[in-house]
Batch of 4 targets.
Target 1
Amino acid sequence: NMIKAKNNIKTVLEKQGRSQVWLAKAIDKSVNTVNAYVQNRTQPSLDILYKIAEVLDVNPKDLLIDKNESDD
């Protein structure tokens, strides 16, 4: 059973007041793709995760939800 990874991209975007459209342009992905990341329907590859962290100026770990902290 694979643990379903979740990301925190939505929270970070909201905190920074940035849009999904902005992020999509910044990482050169479609808005649909970014929306899938934000809604946790799809997880970005490690490369993309690092790119997102870079453009948002956060630690890549901050974009991942720690299973221990999440009450899912």
Target 2
Amino acid sequence: PKEIRITVHMGTCGIAAGARDILSQLGSELLESKVGNVTLKQSGCAGFCDREPMMTLTDATGTNYVYGSLDKRKVHEIVQSHIIGGSPVANYLITT
């Protein structure tokens, strides 16, 4: 595993809410930004169906940051601020 792990939650509710687009956007953003310290994967439902699409970012210390109600603009901001800049985007967090 790399320094940062991102899991996009792809249960039925997540997929219906647009999780496939979020996964694709994350992949594109990471490639364009030349970020090499991230493992990107998918999982099933995380249990917050009303907050889908969601992702969990786990940093090198093992801290989980759960982001919800995502769209492409929010994904871009999370990549730039949290993954590249090291500052979580509090407005989009469900929990840490």
Target 3
Amino acid sequence: MFVVTIVAARWTVRRLAVPSTLSARLGMGCTALGLLLVAEFTLVLCLRGLSVSEYRASQDPVSGTVYYVMLGVFAIMPLLVV
């Protein structure tokens, strides 16, 4: 998933010609993160019939931590790619 995040960020930054300024790249990453979370919560919560708190409680401590770290990486990846 990490490799896909790098490739997708690099492709999107080039395709949309996002300026290399901090605000533009972080804005793009945060927008992408917001869209990802909306899609994930909409699909996962509807399909599994859980609330957000139940969903968070059902996560394994190790995989949940990795998940949150990867969300942060996902948000800042447009800033990190050249």
Target 4
Amino acid sequence: MREQHFFNLHDMSQGIARTLADGLDARIFPGENVMLSVVHVGPNKSGEVHSHAQEQWGVVLEGSGVRTQDGIEHQVRAGDFWQTPGNVSHGLRAGPDGAVVLDIFSPPRDEYRQTGSGFGD
């Protein structure tokens, strides 16, 4: 296997850098049919509630927060995960210790294939 197909969640030099909002920094790993995003969310930081056409799954790897999905708030902590259908509004506010979230998109989001900022184009 080729080394270019192996990554580490904690190596912030890997992936495509994207600042989603103040205190929300992501590393994006695009594939042909799926895209992973490792998001570091600072203590008590949050991004805008938004939606997109892609299906999204999320896993809290570290920390805690409140996941808003379709207008409903859900308390989440390390080990919790969820599925968000396309075009459903969602967002996350981290708890007092911050959070690390692994997001999985299918199909990949075109706007996340290059360095940038924000949740959309």
